[in-house]
């Protein structure tokens, strides 16, 4: 694993491109944790990061200019329609958020959330929702500070590491 770069500045959030797939897949594997993932730890051979259900246009990403003059992926957020139904076309759902360990503590998750909110509005959405594991207190606090409210709790919905965990549904309006 490459050493953590020192970074000078974060670049503006941008849409993902197909060429970003290897870096996104690497970041996704590096940030895997039962704090936020309901999937088993990734093991080789790794499936493609992008597929029919996870398209590049659903991802916003943040990069950092590093001290060595390079640029490195620092984080991503996935913004997608929650269902294929016309009845939910006014809703966008955050379906993934990851920040590289070396980029944490710089407000990047908040920046990605705000970019997702802006993009959801640009797409005509009136609501933004997400699901978060009940034991992920840092994420829940961040979402609450960005205007998300708990709209439902599915008690014990998820079984992880030998225990039942709540699935917390949060949402916010995007209309003034």
Summarize the structure.
This protein is of the alpha+beta class and 176 residues long. It is built from three helices and eight strands. Strands 1, 2, 3, 4, 5, 6, 7 and 8 form an eight-stranded mixed sheet that branches.
Q: How would you describe this protein?
A:
The protein has 176 residues and is α+β, with helices and mostly antiparallel strands. It has a domain at 7-125: Aminopeptidase (3-Layer(aba) Sandwich). It has 3 helices and 8 strands, in the order E-E-H-E-E-E-H-E-H-E-E. Strands 1, 2, 3, 4, 5, 6, 7 and 8 form an 8-stranded mixed β-sheet that branches. This is GNAT family N-acetyltransferase. GO terms for molecular function: acyltransferase activity, transferring groups other than amino-acyl groups. Residues 11-175 form the N-acetyltransferase domain. It holds the Pfam family Acetyltransf_1.
| Morphology | globular
Number of helices: 3
Helix content: 10-25%
Radius of gyration using CA atoms only: 16 Å
Low-confidence parts: none
Secondary structure class reads alpha+beta
CATH topology of the domain at 7-125: Aminopeptidase
Helix and strand element order: EEHEEEHEHEE
Oligomer state equals: single chain
Domain N-acetyltransferase: 11-175
Keywords: Acyltransferase, Transferase
Protein name: GNAT family N-acetyltransferase
Pfam families: Acetyltransf_1
């Amino acid at each position: 694993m490459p050493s953590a770069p020192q970074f000078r500045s974060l670049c503006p959030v941008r849409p993902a491109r197909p060429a970003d797939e290897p870096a996104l897949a690497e970041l996704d594997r590096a940030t895997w944790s039962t704090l936020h993932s309901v999937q088993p730890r990734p093991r080789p051979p790794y499936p493609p990061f992008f597929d029919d259900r996870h398209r590049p246009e659903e991802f916003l990403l943040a990069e950092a200019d590093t001290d060595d003059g390079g640029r490195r992926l620092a984080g991503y957020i996935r913004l997608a329609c929650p269902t294929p139904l016309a009845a939910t076309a006014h809703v966008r759902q955050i379906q993934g958020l990851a920040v590289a360990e070396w980029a944490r503590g710089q407000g990047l998750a908040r920046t990605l959330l705000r970019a997702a909110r802006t993009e959801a509005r640009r797409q005509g959405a009136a609501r933004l929702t997400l699901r978060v594991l009940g034991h992920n207190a840092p994420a829940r606090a961040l979402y609450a500070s960005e205007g998300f409210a708990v709209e439902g709790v599915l008690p014990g919905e998820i079984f992880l590491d030998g225990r039942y965990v709540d699935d917390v549904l949060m949402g916010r309006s995007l209309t003034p």
